From TrEMBL:
The lineage of its organism: Bacteria, Pseudomonadati, Pseudomonadota, Alphaproteobacteria, Acetobacterales. This is DHA2 family multidrug resistance protein-like MFS transporter. GO terms for cellular component: plasma membrane. The keyword Signal does not apply. Keywords: Cell membrane, Membrane, Transmembrane, Transmembrane helix, Transport. It comes from Acidocella aromatica. Gene3D superfamilies: MFS general substrate transporter like domains, Multidrug resistance protein D. The chain crosses the membrane at residues 21-40, 52-74, 86-107, 113-133, 142-165, 171-191, 203-223, 229-249, 270-291, 303-322, 329-349, 361-377, 398-418, 424-450.
Amino acid sequence: MSATIIEGLPKGARQRAMFGLALAVLLSVLDYTVVNVALPRIAVSLNCPDSAAIWVVNAYQLITVIALLPVAALGDRLGHARLCRVGLVLFVVASVFCAVAPSLPVLAAARALQGLGAACILGVNAALLRYIYPPHILGRGIALNGLVIGLGVAIGPTIAAAVLAVATWPWLFLINLPLGGAAFYFALTALPNTPRIPGGFDYASAALLALAFGGLIIGGDRFAHESSLGITLGLIALGAVSLVVLVLRQLGKSDPLLPVDLLARGGFRAAFLTGFFAFIASNFFIIPMPFALMNELHRGPVATGLLITPWPLAIVAVAPVVGRLTDRYPAVILSTIGLAITGTGFLLLRLMPTDPSNFDIAWRIFMAGAGFGLFQPPNNKAMIGTAPKHRIGGASGMVSVARLLGQTVGGMLVALTLGLVRDAPYAACLGFAAGTAYLAASISLGRVLVRGG
């Protein structure tokens, strides 16, 4: 292992490598958000009900969550840069399949392949950051990575609307070809080679993990939507039993697929749980807020989109400052303050007057977004920084697992809340958003009691 790789890349090489990695991450995030806008058109085009068309989104997210930890383990063995390139190839090929899909099952299968490609990118991107950036400015790299993810979430609907205004929905996937080609060029020529650890791949544990996550996620989603109770409980039981068997199988291993060794570290565990609950809180806001703006506050679609914009705008605005703060102050300070601000922003949204002005809404959302932007980079750095060098792949995967699993569980809880709460359900969601954000802040603060926080 060369000193260059250990201490990060020189400035020029670092900028090229980060550009390639950022473009790859942006693609994987964009393709989740742009498709949401096109679901009605896809349903009409493929002659399927709206409820079935949702699997165009679900297939992508489910496979991404299931595959994150296995591909992170593969990244340790095959090289993180190599796996990122493999992910880009899978992503671009799957985009072509999506564009020409003649039916919903074919499109859902192609989206699952896209999700696998996205997992290859997201499972190693945090690990690559540790080799692209020198340790003393690693926080800036993590903040920039978070900025790219925030931008992907923010501009996805806008890009989708622009494309659909002049073209059909398959072009949402075809635009990935030039972008993916550019990302692959930089990934091939600029990403650093990283150390590999010896050993084979644990296929049995990967299968157990797929059963665990798949059973729990699909079963939880069915429960939230009040589907058939027998099948739902069977899926949840399958997932729970598989998870127990998987954990028992991983105990004592030096490089487990499910990183129980990292979760045994107090600082890492606290950072993971902080991220998990923070993203549950964010989905308690992000999912129901457009409905609240349109159905209760009587804003039109354009005004609703503009009023949601302060959330990603705030994340982008604070990113340069947060990157520098992350390199100077511990996560326990920054993440706790950030989540407390986010929770207060959600609480102020919950307590708004019955007929608020656009400014009343916007500044509260901006406040919550600014706090979220302050929380994320230092918390991610804490996860990466507390992991041993030989476990950086597992830590990288868990950074994305905390985000995607939190968003998935948050989505289920929102569906459950909207189904059960008849009186002011959107206000209830905002109350849960505030409470969960404060819970995440308290978990973050608990790092003062453990080493490595």
